[in-house]
Task: structure prediction
Amino acid sequence: MKDYDPSPCKVSVASETGRLRAVLLRRPGEEIERMTPLNAQHALYSDILNKPDVDEEYSNFCGVLEKWTKVYYVRDVLKQLLADPALRRELVSVSVRHDRNLHATDGDVQSLTDLLCDLPPATLAEVLIEGFENPEWDGQSDDRYLLHPLYNLLFTRDASSTLYDRVLINSMRFEVREREAYLYESIFRHFFGVDTLCAERWDSEARTEGGDVQIASSDLLCIGQGIRTNAKGIQYLAETFARERETFHILVQELPHEPESFIHLDMVFTFLGRHECMCFEPMLKKQGLFSNKDTWLITMDHGRMTHKRVENIVKGLNSLGWDMTPIISGGRDPWVQLREQWHSGVNFFALDDCRVMGYRRNTHTIDALDRAGYAVLKAEDIINDRVQMADYKKFVAAFPGSELPRAGGGARCMTMPVWRD
Result:
């Protein structure tokens, strides 16, 4: 593991596949073990996880990234920010007031804020993520935590998204995730020093989430519209960039609202490189759950906005001059496609053009990449210097995943790029 560099880098991401220079991660902590069968559904999990396995798998995941790029960890950045007394009180106060499950009087809120502000910055950074236990908990009731854990913070992609030279602070669909956005607002305003966008500030009903927002190029976004990102959220982005740029495009893919494996666009479509992408075939062919899901091209041209239905997202890209070849996740067997999509078989993350990361468990998908010319590298071999990623023009860094996929996300979900070439 490289030594932690406390200095902020520039913030700039203009594609999904430019060479990665810096990324923000959250190594899963005690919040994982503070989930029970009773609160898992509220936390948006379908099951509870075994943390020792999570730790081992995540170490392979972040170990590859540390070999490639500068890695910031949320806890380390928060620790730095919380050393400032004024910012510490602001962040604690906002966190306490927006913990929706805390039914307390103003006096109780003030009392808890005072108590937390007295904690050392390193301890407080953990508490804001992992939760703060009620010292009077009786061992039986539901009020164990005065400040509830942020169970989903390992998915750093969702609550914030670097959009060119700014950061979109996402307006989360579910209340259990709202506090994540406030943490990222502070991180990007006060640590990285960048301007932020937020659909909810424009319209209280507008929703966006990072898993639905993919940057194709300087003038094109691909966005999923489903249970997490809604039409008003997309309208906000369209109007924002229509004001700022002469020409801009947004490709919108409508998503099923269930099952939960289809919550975001990056569960059915991800960029692997400038000319290749990973796709869930029923989305392309508009079959099964996608049989009535539209794909739209929104074009903003000198203040005029037009909408056009296109056959699918790949055909939409190619209509704009791209030469995009899809690779099918799960191979050709439709049952295998469904199985591997369920465990984030489409959810790849690009370190550079055609240099990607993904779960090794999705063997048919990895085989498809192999046939497409990607060298299959084991994460353990990369970490132990048995192979060098720089030696390969195209590769997939395949890391083990048994518990992590059960949390509902993959390599792209767990990464928030801050800087790409």
User: Anything to note?
Assistant: The first strand starts at residue 20 and ends at 25. The chain has a mean pLDDT of 94.
